[in-house]
Amino acid sequence: MAAGVATWLPFARAAAVGWLPLAKKTMPKPPVDKKSRNDEILFVNVSGLRFQTWKNTLDRYPDTLLGSSEKEFFYNEDTQEYFFDRDPEMFRHILNFYRTGKLHYPRQECIQAFDEELAFYGIVPDIIGDCCMEEYRDRKKENQERLAEDTEAENATDTPLPPHSTSRERLWRAFENPHTSTMALVFYYVTGFFIAVSVIANVVETVPCRPPKGSKKDLPCGEKYTLAFFCMDTACVLIFTFEYLMRLFAAPSRCKFMRSVMSVIDVVAIMPYYIGLVMPENEDVSGAFVTLRVFRVFRIFKFSRHSQGLRILGYTLKSCASELGFLLFSLTMAIIIFATVMFYAEKGTKGTNFTSIPASFWYTIVTMTTLGYGDMVPNTIAGKIFGSICSLSGVLVIALPVPVIVSNFSRIYHQNQRADKMRAQQKVRLARIRLAKKGTTNAFLQYKEEGGFQGRGSDNALCLKNRSSFEHQHHHLLHCLEKTTNHEFTDELTFSEMCMTESVGYRTSRSTSISSQQGVATSCCPRRAKRRAIRLANSTVSVSRGSVQELDTLQVHKTSAGPQSSRSSLNARTEDLKLNCEDRDFTAAIISIPTPPANTPDESLPPSPAIPGILRNSRPTSFTHETVKISSL
Amino acid sequence: MSGCARCCKHGLMKFALSVGKLVRGTLIKDNLDDDLELSVVCHRPEGLEQLEAQTNFSKKELQVLYRGFKNECPSGAVNEETFKQIYSQFFPHGDASTYAHYLFNSFDSSQNGSIKFEDFVTALSILLRGTTTEKLEWTFNLYDINRDGYINKEEMTNIVKAIYDMMGRFTYPALKTDTPKQHVDAFFQKMDKNRDGVVTLDEFILSCQEDENIMRSLQLFENVI
């Protein structure tokens, strides 16, 4: 029942008095209304902006946050108001919904922010009023498309291959993304070159060359230098065939590949040659053979693998298929109408060109598209009148679908531009984030080294004071885990060194290990022995209590002041960031990863982009540790 | 014949006018303008003090009532269609439109096709805060569809049918076709004292006052607001 009807309920109940004299039985007792019926004004404080409204207004929608008892959780006894720590600008719209019953979508707001606010207040987006629903839906669709593109771009091309891909997968990848390897790039350019050569050869062989001695007639070059052209053609076809077979072999799904447009074009491009080889040199079929040679021109479409612009044009035409279809249909209708009219108008004239209606089709088309060759001209007055109407209407009918096609093309083109730009920016972004995450939460290991476990008595206790209570508790937690599993946290370098030294036969007394999700085996490494620049691979702490999985990726990055090496290029910025024990000021970083990290030794960026980052610079330290942290809480 | 000629002339005039509009480019615009002018009509109730004097509600109650009313009908008046829709929402099982029609007529004291806030509040005041006599009078006016001072069998049958319509088809026990008629007969048996086939206001009030059930039920709805 609509909330507004609640206002009329007392009225409907009162009108029930009209039934009383007719009643056969006694009326039931009415429900006792416990809560006070006095309407009161509620104060709602949203991030400092105070709103006041009648309680009744909020009660109109009892299945939302503000209309139900859920708002009591936000009640502040001291100030006698409901306090929400949310966006005050958005709240205005939410409150208007209660007041007017219609939810409006503010055009200048981000669609995701709006959705989040709605979700918080328990309002279903479906009740957005008709006035704003279209805009809301469009923006939402656009946003989802963009997100889909982004995730696609992330997952796509430039991610490194999984280590155990077959040669077939690698080959396919090389074909699809020529940038990944040099060989692929070379092959890409070679095929491009040969496509060009083939097309040019096709064109040139019809140009008239000087006739050979003793003959007057000009010969097309193709017939003069038959052998040369044949060799060139053979070479091109060999390359194309080889490429097609390679693609067919490498394709993950051969059926799907064979049905794809590019494969069809490939086949059509090389078939004429083979058919020509097979076909005998006899007069009857050579006509058909000549027709087949026309198909060689389709090789030019192979360029669309090389040119993104061509692909975009193709997509545009595909997406405008309905408009184009409509154009064609309306043109056909108009052509038939005008051709008929012109035919009958010109029927009487002697020696007229308009011999039949299909003959008039040519005139109509030429006139409607404003070509006006002038090979067919009306002579009668009626014919001229209808001819002019025909040309005027032609201009209109053709102009109509053009803007649609243009706007589609522009949209797709810009989308593509965006995708390319995004890919470039993504690389830079990833590098920066990686850098920032490096050396985060070595806090725990620092903590251990400074003897945090030994209690306050040690020298380094001073350094510990600057940590927040949060950090203390967090470290305590990690320590508990270490004790539970009887393993200790360490960093990647140490771990990899352990592996190496193990193989050399060098063991130390302490065994350390990385507890990771994969359950990597223990290895030996002294805890404080080595400090070199390494990256810790997914050392994760699964807090298995509770349903929330917060996986802390501890990543360590320590460099010494020496000629340290491998990370220096990436750490160029952090050269100046050093820690000092005295004024340590870093906070632990917990990066909540909603999904389990991949089992790769690489640092994988967590899929969710919601990592707020606060970089804190720290000052020089005696160890010359570089710690750049993200604190995300 | 002359009528035909006049008709043709009229048609020709209209055609000429529309060609003129076509030329001037104003062909479709006129209809919109007409529609816009009708919708903005506003009613305002009399002052709060007056209403307080006329009805049995306190100021606060009137304020609450008006706020709800104004929110639903910003223009200040309810027409019959809207009223039927609203009332039907309370009785989704059956068809409440007939009864809503009778109800609307009884609320619309000025019989002009719309209920203003004063009508609304006056009727509520009678139903919720009025004396039993007032309530019974109001009910009598509801039943007396043609406002002639008498309730005859036909009017009563209409009312009862309308009430049974609100029940819908799926009832237990199932509704039979003569259930309304039986109900009306029972009613007249009780109310029509002098057996003249119609019930007057006095007969009605008297009979109701004799019935304990009715008297008691009349008190039930006092705390609705």
SSE blueprint:
The complex is a heterodimer of chains A (633) and B (225).
Chain A: H1 9-15, E1 41-46, E2 49-54, H2 55-59, E3 75-76, E4 81-84, H3 88-100, H4 111-121, H5 130-155, H6 167-176, H7 182-204, E5 208-209, E6 219-220, H8 221-224, H9 226-250, H10 254-259, H11 261-278, H12 283-294, H13 308-319, H14 321-345, H15 357-368, H16 381-399, H17 402-437, H18 443-449, H19 461-465, H20 469-485, H21 492-504, E7 511-512, E8 523-524, E9 539-542, E10 551-554, E11 615-616, E12 629-630
Parallel strand pairs in A: 1-4
Antiparallel strand pairs in A: 1-2, 3-4, 5-6, 7-8, 9-10, 11-12
Helix pairs in contact in A: 5-17, 6-9, 7-9, 9-11, 13-17, 14-15, 14-16
Chain B: H1 2-24, H2 29-39, H3 48-54, H4 59-72, E1 77-79, H5 80-90, H6 97-107, E2 114-116, H7 117-129, H8 132-143, E3 150-152, H9 153-167, H10 179-191, E4 198-200, H11 201-210, H12 212-218
Antiparallel strand pairs in B: 1-2, 3-4
Structure description:
The complex is a heterodimer of chains A (633) and B (225). Chain A is an alpha+beta fold and 633 residues long. Chain A has helices at residues 9-15, 55-59, 88-100, 111-121, 130-155, 167-176, 182-204, 221-224, 226-250, 254-259, 261-278, 283-294, 308-319, 321-345, 357-368, 381-399, 402-437, 443-449, 461-465, 469-485, 492-504, and strands spanning 41-46, 49-54, 75-76, 81-84, 208-209, 219-220, 511-512, 523-524, 539-542, 551-554, 615-616, 629-630. Chain A is built from 21 helices and 12 strands. In chain A, α5 (130-155) packs across α17 and α14 packs across α15 (357-368). The radius of gyration of chain A is 39 Å and the shape is flat. In chain A, 23% of the residues are buried. Chain B is mainly alpha-helical. Chain B is built from 12 helices and 4 strands. Chain B has helices at residues 2-24, 29-39, 48-54, 59-72, 80-90, 97-107, 117-129, 132-143, 153-167, 179-191, 201-210, 212-218, and strands at 77-79, 114-116, 150-152, 198-200. Chain B has a two-stranded antiparallel sheet. In chain B, strands 3-4 form a two-stranded antiparallel ribbon. Chain B is extended. Classes of the chains: A alpha+beta (633), B mainly alpha (225). The interface between A and B is large, with 33 and 44 residues.
